[in-house]
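Worked example

This section walks through a single chain of length 175. The input is the sequence exactly as stored; nothing has been trimmed or padded.
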Amino acid sequence: MRVILACITTLLLLLGCATPGIEAYRGEKPQLDLKRYFNGTVDGWGMVQDRWGKVLRRFHVVIVSTWDGDKGVLDESFDWSDGKKEKRVWTISKNGDRYSGSAGDVLGVASGEAAGNALRWGYVLKLPPDQGGHEVDVDDWMYLVDDDTMLNRSTINKFGIRFGDITISFRKRKT
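Given that input, the structure is written out below as tokens.
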């Protein structure tokens, strides 16, 4: 009986940690289309926090984006608060409300789906050697606030355990 009770309690705790699915945002406006938002130059300001909420690093990122049909390139240049500079270049494919992508430090293929003003994007990221070189799962949520502003919240997990979060505020540059 104790084993059954322990299993039920564990299941309830796990269900309580579940996030809403992308469908919960289907009716939200404005409509998020990565191809439309990430077209040109976008600035982002963000922070990385550990599992307890302590800010570990802050950054500014400049993303220069180009598209050819439903294939896009997002060229990201990071300036970190500790003086380091990093680069990540995403190659993205759009298929209706679904997206897939790759980058040099992403293992396999990233995949996601948009609904309403939100996009959920998941991938495995290989951390740099100075950050342990671990492979971590990233659960990435983007929310379009208005035509020029997007918020991004990412959860970093390993073996199903949350290790940290990344928060970013994006703003499109006016041309």
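What to look for: The two ends are 66 Å apart (CA to CA).
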